Amino acid sequence: MKFEDYRALFLVASLVSGVLAASPALSLFVSFPTSGESFSEFWLLGLDHRAESYPFNVSVDETNGPIYLGVRNHMGSSKYYMVYVKLRNQTQPLPDGSTGKPSPVPPLYEFQFFLSDDEVWEHPVTFVIHYTSSQNDSVVVHYTSINGVRFPVNSSSIWDWERNGFYYQLFFELWLYNTASHSFQYYDRFVGIWLNMTVF
Amino acid sequence: MAQAYEAVLDAERSGADVSGLLVRLNDAAALLSEARMAFEVGDFEEATRFAESASEVGYEVVDDAELLEIEANNAQVHRSGRFLVTSALGVSTVLVASLLGYEFFKRRYYKRMSKKSSKAGQL
User: Fold this and answer.
1) B121 membership: H or E segment, kind and range
2) How many CB pairs under 8 A join A and B?
3) How far apart are CA B42 and CA B76, in angstroms?
4) For residues A192 and A171, what is the distance between their CA atoms, to the nearest angstrom?
């Protein structure tokens, strides 16, 4: 090996050592992009804390659940969430996945909570539905109690000939606080369960 | 509540540990939910009581978040200063060691070369 080759090797080793020695200062000016996608998990688990055994047949004034509602923050920073609990009949619309708009059904119950990055929030939900049948062709839900708080509903449902029953859907919408608009915005995620109110 | 959350976010961006503040914000958020639901069912007295409690916690959190942010910013300034000094010392050491090492190596290399050439001349 010639002396020039040794010199080049020496120069490279010195440069690498120099960069390593300067790395504490360089870390102040160079930031690396965080890996992974930013999102929030949203789930609903059944009675046994598993994705099964959800309440389905709902008797009048009987306590149902608990079912478990959960959110996990993968957004990279602390977030302010809200979950709206809504009850709809077959004709009332669900949130619109194509436009990202929430359901126009008014919320009954709400949960508000803050999660730091990678933190999990989980909360049990129990519900009681008071409904009456009218001349065997429709059902009216008068009120719903969620986690012990009673809300007037007054929503009717007609007989579903396809599925043979009176059906309502209890669903949960995830909303996220937007610091730019200073308001909550629907996060385009919802979970729900169908309830059969044919059993009185 | 939103103001408190934004203050906590600012503190978090400055590198402060905001876990304690988030616990208190969660207490306040639960109170605010209770207030809204009490309002919906017409219990205005309860709604006011819950809302006032939530607001009180929110203002406390704003104050604490601002303090934490200042502390985090000060800590960041100290850390940056330490990093700069460490790097300056490190780079200087590497520079001096490289120059000295290079000189030493150059001398040894040429000494060895001259020994080799004198051996070749003797042969």
Assistant:
1) helix B44-122
2) 96
3) 49
4) 4
Give yes or no for a contact between A104 and A57, defined as CB atoms under 8 angstroms apart: no
Residue type, B33: S
Domain spans in chain B, listed from the N-terminal domain onward: 2-122
Q: How much helix, strand and coil, in percent to the nearest 5, is found in chain A?
A: 15, 50, 35
Confidence at residue A7, expressed as pLDDT on a 0 to 100 scale = 83
Any idea which of A85-99, B68-82, B107-121 has the lowest mean pLDDT?
A: B107-121
Model ipTM value: 0.75
Query: For B90, which residue in chain A has the nearest alpha carbon?
Result: A21
* Residue B107 vs residues A111, B111, B113: alpha-carbon distances, Å: 77, 6, 10
Q: Give the position of tokens 């803050």.
A: A114
The total number of residues written for chain B in this structure = 123
List pLDDT tens digits, range B7-47.
Answer: 999 999 999 999 999 999 999 999 999 998 889 888 899 99
Distance (Å, rounded) from C-alpha A69 to C-alpha A63?
Answer: 17
CA distance B41 to chain A (A): 7
Please choose, from the candidates A153, A195, A200, the residue with its C-alpha nearest in 3D space to the C-alpha of residue A170. Answer: A195
